[in-house]
Amino acid sequence: MMRNQIAWTMLGATLMTGAGLVTAAPPPAQHRVLVQEGAPLSIGRYSAAYQSRGQYSREGIRHEVVVENVTDRKIVAYQLGLLSFNIFNEFQDRLGGYAIKDVVPGGTEEGAWLASALAESSFYTGVAYVSKVRFDDGEVWQADLEEVADQVREIEESFSVESLTGGRD
């Protein structure tokens, strides 16, 4: 009796899909902005998604960010850290999203960067943080990478600072 119920359930699912196989859709990607006390920029909006190759676009993970200058000083360049993790919360890739443009106090800027990871189609979690900022007087602010790595370990326990720097100090 139980075997017949299972067979009929499977047949019904097959007929409903029309394709013969029932497949689950992957969950929507997650986007995380790290908390950074004292950072000169605030990340107001962040999204990341896998982008397949098109006639006029290349394959990769597209990171889109809106930042705001939360200081009373003019910023002339910045770098965002953009990290990608797969569906199993395993680190895929890192990208430095550079922008050389003026951001006045209280001003906002939008940017988009495409990371060409090795396994883009398994992308699931994107992480954004402020990596470096250059002010108009030449001073450079840098993120505390130990603090960044500590927060990223909530996604992947074994994540290291070396993953942020590519092994460079």
Question: Can you walk through the features of this model?
Answer:
The structure is a single chain. Helix content is about 15%, strand content about 40%. By secondary structure, the protein is of the alpha+beta class. Strands 1, 4, 5, 7 and 8 form a five-stranded mixed sheet that branches. A three-stranded antiparallel sheet has the order 2-3-6, with no helix packed on it. Strand 2 and strand 3 (about 60-70) form a beta hairpin.
Would you spell out the secondary-structure blueprint of this structure?
Elements: H1 2-17, E1 30-33, E2 41-51, E3 60-69, E4 75-86, E5 91-99, E6 108-115, E7 123-135, E8 140-142, H2 145-152, H3 161-165
Parallel strand pairs: 1-7
Antiparallel strand pairs: 2-3, 3-6, 4-5, 4-7, 7-8
Descriptive tags:
about 170 residues; alpha+beta; five-stranded mixed beta sheet; three-stranded antiparallel beta sheet; 8 strands; globular
Short description:
By secondary structure, the protein is α+β, with helices and mostly antiparallel strands. 17% of the residues lie in helices and 41% in strands.
- Coarse structural class: alpha+beta
Q: Helix coverage percent of residues? A: 10-25%
**Total number of helical segments?**
3
In one word, what is the shape? globular
Number of DSSP strands? 8
> Describe the biggest sheet?
5 strands, mixed
Determine Rg (CA atoms, Å).
21 Å
